Amino acid sequence: MPVRMLAAVIVSLCGFRAALCADASRPNIVFIISDDQAYTDYGFMGHPQIRTPNIDRLASESLTLRNAYVPSSLCRPSLMSILTGLYPHQHRITSNDPPLPADGKKKKANPEGNAEFLAQRQRMIANIDRVPTLPRTLGERGYVSFQTGKWWEGNYRRGGFTAGMSEGGRHGDKGLDIGRVTMQPMYDFIDGAIAANKPFFLWYAPMLPHTPHTPPERLLAKYESIAPSPSIAKYWAMIDW
């Protein structure tokens, strides 16, 4: 679905929750993206042990699309497809990284210290400049937008966000603090958008339940006695988190 059409669909949803929207034609949008989990591992998707009450409540009030897939199993191409509404062959991001360089022994070298690799990474990132993105399209409608969490495409501004956390490192650098370490940057953005009477788009993409599996003890304790192994207990607790 082209990103402009996607934006129009999202805007039209405000009719169901008009009371939550300052402007019924421009609803506030919180876009939640989980990372590295099975699609069945939510309460509302029928998992018998994992408890996800907040997402379950949202699902109970919403339309759920239970059969939607992207043609790449990697996170970066998938995120670009979500962001642009385009297939990988259209937005040209088909892998997480460019080909890794080899050292003199034909083994993979440290890519972060390889000038050729870093130059190729910048050429990959430049693809985002030539395609429409959801925050840019919403910006044309007067939205402010905020990027948090997983992000591969350079500085958040490259995607059209008006504010954000990631500065250009692999995965999302400072943005990866969201959800695991703090929620404050997101709260500050929302408060500022409301104070300015601006509709907002929030990209909430914490690296959860992605490894490392380090759930809070209060959540891990819920699953230690019912999970088939300690590692699965940690995974389940990460999804709960």
Explain what the structure shows.
The protein has 241 residues and is α/β, with parallel strands linked by helices. It contains 9 helices and 4 strands. The longest helix has 12 residues. The two termini are 31 Å apart. The relative contact order is 0.14.
Short description:
With 241 residues, the chain is α/β, with parallel strands linked by helices. The chain contains nine helices and four strands.
Question: What is the secondary structure topology, with strand pairs?
Answer:
Blueprint: H1 3-12, E1 29-32, H2 53-60, H3 75-84, H4 88-91, H5 115-125, H6 134-139, E2 144-149, E3 163-164, H7 184-195, E4 200-205, H8 217-223, H9 230-240
Parallel strand pairs: 1-4, 2-3, 2-4
What descriptive keywords fit this protein?
241 residues, alpha/beta, 4-stranded parallel β-sheet, 9 helices
Instruction: Note the run of SSEs as H and E.
Output: HEHHHHHEEHEHH
Whole-angstrom Rg: 19 Å
**Number of helices, counting only DSSP H or I runs of 4 residues or more:** 9
Quick check: average pLDDT? 87
Q: Give the N-to-C terminal Cα separation.
A: 31 Å
Question: What is the spatial order of strands in the main beta sheet?
Answer: 1-4-2-3
Main sheet characteristics: 4 strands, parallel
| Residue share in helix | 25-40%
Secondary structure class reads alpha/beta
| Tertiary shape | globular
